[in-house]
Amino acid sequence: MEDKFCKFCGEKIPFDAIVCTKCGRQVEKLDGGKEGIVINNVANSSAAATAEVTTVSPASTGRKTVSKWTSFALCFFGGYLGLHKFYEGKTGMGVLYLCTFGLCGIGWIIDIFNILGKSDPYEV
Fold first, then answer.
1. Does pTM surpass 0.85?
2. Chain centroid, CA 104 distance in Å
């Protein structure tokens, strides 16, 4: 069986290997050189594994981020008027809550518990 060398650490690896067996770095493209899946594994000499975290900002998803506690205060004190719905940018639901006094109080009570269960801040 033929061998080749990793272009990152110089270790001898099997010829058909795509990922280095020593350093864990990708040495060849997948699918015979076609673009597509990329493996981004990083091997450490320590026992603890690390991983890179990619965060997606709300601006890139087109979603609005709101404060949990501001939304909760608006819901608690003015939920029957739909103030928290207007704050979240849900104008249609805000008008519905305004016209029905928080869906006869039932929607208002449910929203209080729903908002408390969300993270701070949360996306709407």
1. no
2. 35
